[in-house]
Amino acid sequence: MASIQLKGLTKAYGGLEVIHGIDLQIDEGEFVALVGPSGCGKSTMLRMIAGLETISKGELSFDEEVVNRLTPTERGISMVFQSYALYPHLSVRKNLSFGLENLRMPRPEIEARIAEATRMLELGPYLDRKPKALSGGQRQRVAIGRAIVRQPRVFLFDEPLSNLDAKLRVQTRGEISRLHQQLGTTMIYVTHDQVEAMTMAQKIVVMNGGRVEQVGRPLDLFERPANLFVAGFIGSPR
Ligand code: ADP
Ligand code: MG
Q1: For residue 9, which phi and psi values (nearest 5 degrees)?
Q2: pLDDT tens track for 182-232
Q3: CA 36 to ligand 1 centroid distance, Å
Q4: Whose CA is nearest to atom 20 of ligand 1?
Q5: ipTM score for this prediction
Q6: Residues 62, 235 contacting (CB under 8 angstroms)
Q7: What's the CA gap between 62 and 26, in Å, rounded?
Q8: Which positions fall inside the ABC transporter domain (predicted)?
Q9: Cβ burial 24-46 (10 Å sphere, 16+ → b, else e)
Q10: For residues 149 and 114, what is the distance between their CA atoms, to the nearest angstrom?
């Protein structure tokens, strides 16, 4: 687990600034939702925190240690994407073990981690199947399992439910919340869905146009929105 500090975090693509110097503190073990309309910079923020995107300006720290130049593996993050990004030609078991084998982890440790993820996500019946023989919800559980086996310091989710139908969204939402309760790992969860954010997060960061409009607990944002944008975003039906 890690706390995360952002100081003046800025991103520009070819001279065009899209993230304008964001300051943010995320506590160890906290579940934080990053919300805002499409194009406001949520994915860019998450990718900078992950180490998948360079930081143009500013400082990113995990546990007060600057990580700007560290790779995702060195930062100890796991990321779950909207599109499951599973290896189609590999079984579920192999999808879970692949990354760990690349890290040259001893076999018994790999097996133990797979067993734990399998138990937590009830993946047992699917271990020998290929991704194409799974439903969307099952695939996303495998993707979450692949994030778990790395035992990251921080989990990063980028709209992980948006490819699922309404019923599966609710179910998978519950699974991710349960994971957070069981593991207690710091989680940053990107969504454009305010209902997801309100029901899952301990802290919500409302973004708009590459800036943070407000940070607060769900109830605080609901009862005391800082401005009309936050009020409209939190209050509007999806
Ligand atoms: P969100 O995830 O909130 O929908 P993004 O982080 O994907 O928003 O995008 C934020 C802004 O950055 C958008 O204006 C988008 O067009 C721009 N952007 C994102 N990725 C790139 C890129 N690789 N090159 C240029 N502009 C980009
Ligand atoms: Mg996005």
Answers
A1: -65, 125
A2: 999 999 999 999 899 999 999 999 999 999 999 999 999 999 999 999 999
A3: 13
A4: 44
A5: 0.98
A6: no
A7: 9
A8: 4-234
A9: bebeeebbbbbbbeeebbbbbbb
A10: 6
